[in-house]
Design a protein that fits this description.
CATH architecture: 3-Layer(aba) Sandwich
Structural class: alpha+beta
CATH class: Alpha Beta
Number of domains: 1
Mean pLDDT: 90
Strand order of the largest sheet: 1-3-2-8-7-6
Strand content: 5-15%
Largest sheet: 6 strands, mixed
Number of strands: 8
Order of helices and strands: HEHEEHHHHHEHEHHHEEEH
Oligomer: single chain
Helix content: 25-40%
CATH superfamily: DD-peptidase/beta-lactamase superfamily
CATH topology: Beta-lactamase
Radius of gyration: 20 Å
Number of helices: 12
Distance between the termini: 27 Å
Length: 352
């Protein structure tokens, strides 16, 4: 595996402690303490880049001009350039506009699981590791439900009376509070994902319908007033922390990235996403999580060059009719050609 350019201090000693609390117990003492300030320093160093913004604007306009279906979409895009020995830069299009993230949210829960593990708050044994893999590789909603319930010490069940519901609601904010401690705002990550057909009911539905929860997706007219919401910029900033080992321990970061490693030869649909845009280059690794639901077509990930130079790409497309085209791959392809030039040349045709 390509090694990262930045590492944290040695990881904390892990004390395996499963989360067995009842869903209405609300002690804050069992939550991970705020991380070391490295995360805030890295986030503060990510500043808008005029050159990167000019590149992104030109690339988007060219791709819009060539793709009528793309012109029907609302684009939310963020790029963070993470050079090996220079300050990072940010460019975006509607990067601060919240959107329903579909399955992209699962990367947040994967990171949180390893953060809890780093703090000795849960054990990632082989069985739970398989659940995490199902959540990321197969994008299983049922697995995501199991993971989030474990992270928040909540359980499925019938609707709750006011007092136990207040405690349930508080615990469901546990991952969001961890993100805020890292310095990441604008990620309203408080729900699992659902298949429909009966897996959304009772207290989960009660929470989703709660109009008093702050930070949810704005302008919701239906009953689901407390919807999940993420922005491209905040998602990119979180991935920048993952890329530089500043959200988790070095071991935890490496394990998360391994779960997110992408290979379009194994999953062909990835040819339309970030991994496809990396063109299977041997000097690049891609770690990402896609999202597809109704009007949403999305991907968020890290492209890592053999030199240690890295690029974070986040794209959320939203529209009706839904878009399922090549924009994400094409934008990634242009970005890596500009920022991560190829260092391992492919053999010439007919060569030995």
């Amino acid at each position: 595996m390509i090694r990262r350019r930045l590492r944290l201090a040695s990881r904390a000693v892990l004390l395996a402690t499963p989360l067995l609390c009842a869903p209405w117990a609300v002690p804050r003492a069992d939550e991970p303490p705020p991380p070391e300030p490295d995360s805030h320093a890295l986030l503060d160093s990510i500043q808008p880049s005029d050159g990167l913004q000019a590149f992104l604007d030109a690339a988007i306009e060219e791709l819009l001009a060539a793709d009528a279906a793309l012109r029907e979409q609302t684009l939310r895009v963020a790029l963070i350039d993470l050079p090996a020995a220079a300050a990072p830069g940010l460019a975006h299009r509607n990067g601060d506009s919240p959107v329903y993230p579909a399955s992209v949210v699962k990367l947040v829960y994967l990171m949180a699981a390893y953060a809890w593990r780093d703090q000795g708050l849960l054990t990632i044994d082989p069985a739970f590791e398989r659940v995490l893999r199902e959540m990321i590789y197969a994008s299983s909603n049922r697995a995501t439900q199991r993971v989030l319930r474990r992270l928040t010490a909540t359980q499925a069940g019938p609707r709750l009376a006011p007092e136990p519901y207040a405690a349930f609601r508080e615990r469901r904010h546990r991952v969001k509070r961890w993100l805020q401690d890292l310095g990441i705002e604008d990620l309203h990550t408080v729900h699992p994902t659902y298949d429909g057909g009966g897996d959304l009911y009772g207290r989960d539905l009660q929470f989703l319908e709660d109009p008093t929860v702050e930070g949810s997706l704005p302008d919701q007219n239906g009953p689901y007033r407390n919807r999940q919401a993420m922005t491209a910029n905040a998602t990119a900033r979180l991935l920048a922390l993952l890329a530089t080992d500043q959200a988790l321990s070095p071991d935890g970061s490496a394990e998360v990235r391994e779960q997110m490693r992408r290979d379009p030869r194994r999953q062909r649909y990835l040819m339309q996403r970030i991994a496809g845009g990396a063109d299977l280059r041997p000097d690049l690794e891609v770690y990402s999580k896609t999202g597809t639901w109704g009007p949403i077509f999305a991907d968020a990930g890290i492209v890592e060059h053999a030199s240690g130079h890295q690029l974070v790409v986040v794209v959320f497309l939203e529209g009706r009719p839904a878009y399922r085209g090549s924009f994400i791959a094409e934008l990634t392809r242009r970005a890596v050609r500009r920022l991560l030039p190829e260092t391992v040349k492919k053999p010439a045709a007919g060569g030995a």
